[in-house]
Description:
This protein is mainly alpha-helical.
Amino acid sequence: MTTQIEQAVVDTPQTSTTKEVVPKAFLASFILVTLCFPLWGFANDITNPLVKAFSKILQMTAAEGTLVQVAFYGGYGVMAIPAAIFIKKFSYKAGLMLGLAFYALGAFLFLPAASAQAFAPFLLAFFVMTCGLSFLETSANPYILSMGPAETATRRLNLAQAFNPVGSLLGMFIATQFIIQKLDPATDAERRALAADGSQSAIDQLSAITANDLAVIRDPYIGIALVVFVVLLIIAFKKMPRTEEKSTDLDLSGTFKRLFANQNYREGVIAQMFYVGAQIMCWTFIIHYGTEVFVSLGMTEQDAEAKSQMLNIYAMVIFCLSRFICTFLLKYVNPGKLLMLLAAGGIVFTTATIFLTGVAGVYALVGISACMSLMFPTIYGIALTGTGDDAKLGAAGLIMAIVGGTFLPMAQASIIDMKIVFDGFSATKASFILPLICFVVIAIYGKRSQQHLPE
């Protein structure tokens, strides 16, 4: 038995006297929950540049560096279902609080990880942190959907998600100004030379460089841990509306059977997996792509990396502006149709990234962000259409799909590590065939999903 508000989240639209995106009764809670969206945006996008940073600091290959993404996005895959069960048994507020607690704990673990000067403790810290993000996203997304009528549910989620890039932009800025720029200027080759030297002076010099660089990575995470802890306290003491009934009857088997039988939901999970993979690949490897291009034009490696990271920030600004524009367009355009059109744009820009030379290819890669802005919340909202009370566990499946951010970037990194030329294309350029495939999958889902959406 679902509550009136809960049913309004994902069932087909009912006759309603109001079409408010956020009803006044929910406004304060909507704002507070929306504050959580920039928090995980920050975590995602301060982390992406660290693939390159850890590879440099610890003398690893690009593929080894993507273990950062495996640990980070792996937390989503492991904890999404437990998070959904927890939320179904307790409440969205309880899920938010537990998520914030794990987030803060994982970020605080960067302190001992930096002291250990080893990769594994950082991977553990990333994993714990994203176990928290899994709880946070599994709670916040459906909670936002439930705060009003079904007719405006997708627009409501897009509005909340529009603030996610604000955190992402801040994360990218801090990564550029307070991590990348603060790392020791020693190049990859110089660090490897010190490691190969073997003398005590070389070992001491390399150890000092490594300790400095890991401390540079550590400090922003300690800062965000304190911010997250404050938000946790605010939510703990704020009375939040309950839009779902407490349930001890989970009926996991029945719920999963219904979800797997739902073609729209099943294909939505697949599309979400490919979207997250495309997003992480385009934002992580813009640094590799840009560095390769700018070094070929005569820049030093450090300047090329810094310029590439700045372009990543520009990409996020475009993403953020596009999110607000697309949220407005959803008032007039079927979400599935807009998703399909933006995926088609992603296909065009990614093709240009592969085939254009010089800075034109870099600008095309930046342009992909305008097309990605709408995708995550729109796929999320479309996939949950008509799932009723199964939306709680259905949301978990869509969060689990974030594991696309693990194996797809690793596959791309493996191509980049080949460092060979494919019929005139560098390995880095050729690797963007993977995001191209992702956008094709998303375009197909956008087309097919239109039949499941109310006009």
